[in-house]
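SEVERITY: medium
COMPONENT: batch folding queue
REPORTER: lab tech (J.R.)

DESCRIPTION
The queue accepted two submissions in a row. Attaching both inputs and their returned structure tokens so the on-call engineer can compare them side by side.

ATTACHMENT 1
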Amino acid sequence: MTTTAPVVAFDQVSKAYDAVRAVDGLTLGLSPGQTVALLGPNGAGKSTTLDLLLGLKRPDSGTVRLFGTSPRDAIVAGRVGAMLQSGGLMDEVTVAELVRLACDLHPKPYRPSEVLARAGVAQIADRKVDKLSGGQAQRVRFALATAGDSDLIVLDEPTTGMDVTTRQAFWATMREQADQGRTVLFATHYLEEADAVADRVLVLYRGRLLADGTAAEIKAKAGARRVSFEVAGAIDEPALRALPFLTGIDISGRTVRIQSSDADATVHALYGLGVHPRNLEVAGLGLEQAFVAITTAEEAKSR
């Protein structure tokens, strides 16, 4: 699966819908064997980016290349498997029939029985597709995306509707795919999945690449830490909100949770108020808090 060209290459790609610029000068590249999470708030341009990558839409400017060629040519060659939110599954056919068709159409197919087992749908192979639950339908879409030996697997919100056990099994399979040298690109709203699974995290905001790095690097980019504690006596809320370097605060009963860009200085000032915190904890932001901090800061700059 080695290749001299990047698996995915966006070069100054833009796409607009009337006055809305869904993708704005996007430049990025993906390498073989990476598991990459694509994050962003609603309207950030994630779905449009995936549509451009798969050749479902054409950019207004810039170029999109997969393995050094056009998206269409890469897909016709069987180098790309995709699991999208848009588009339905065929009705009045069984899961096995649909998977068999996908294998027949792929230039480098796997055996249908292997595909059914890997996707966890072998037990429902004889069930009609229109009788599936939401989670079962997602697993069938995954089966179709991995019906053949593709080098790039693109997943749009892949675990929506799956229960916890199925999600864990799904991501174990995806890690196996990446370990075999395939590139896995997935868009998700489950930030804990991105934190646990992705080698690399891309944060889109208004069609632009706002952050690019490992989950740890994204957390560090937020430049804040979490401070939580309990107060035994009365809470002087105005004084707490005036603490230095605060980027966020939540007060629930006698529990205070703070985000600070300089936790040491904030805690020092807290004691300076005469507050004696109990169960004091200082920790780094999780990926979800870092994501919110980064996008909120960008929103404030654009006002």
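ATTACHMENT 2
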Amino acid sequence: MKANRERVIFCDFDGTITVNDNIVAIIKHFNPPGWQKIVDDIVAQRISIRDGVGQLFRLLPAARQDEVIEYAISNAKIRDGFEELLAYCKEQSVPFYVTSGGIDFFVYPILASFDIPVNHIYCNGSDFTGESIEITWPNPCDDHCSNDCGMCKTTIMRRFPPEKYERILIGDSVTDFEGAKLADLVFSRSHLSEKCRELGLPFVPYETFHEVIAYLSKERTEQQ
């Protein structure tokens, strides 16, 4: 069955493509009062991702736009093997989508040097015109999701029906929990591994994208 389906990869950004979680790094760096409780509430799923991320950025004045953007971009470090994974996907004709709970002002600039079509990058937007930074949500949940995700990864994944596609998810944290339930194969780290264990979902742990490539190559060879 798998061999007859087209593979498609949905890859998280913060803490996955990048080594660090950029949203948390920004908030920690500027250190507005009250941020830690909001982060804890997001991770513990006491509040929705959309609500929590919106609250976090409202703690920062829009007047600091240039500082926030410069810090976010300069602070990011790409995980080893990412460029090689993109090359592997191109060579194997595997569509690669970035499905990010991150924000446009750092996601697009950080990914600009890589060969990824802009329409394959999904993330949240930003508005600096008010007193505080406001996050916008161009990719909301569809009728099948009521989790108030903000950038709804399962909505994107459902555009690729399971009878036609083998859906592969690569992620690390709370924004990937729902997508992991839909995926045929999950590569996970950190909170996502814990959630997969809790839900009894099969997963493959990784630290670099070289491990992802090795596993996909081995599995593909075994199917042939």
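NOTES FROM REPORTER
The longest helix spans residues 209-223.
No errors were logged for either attachment.
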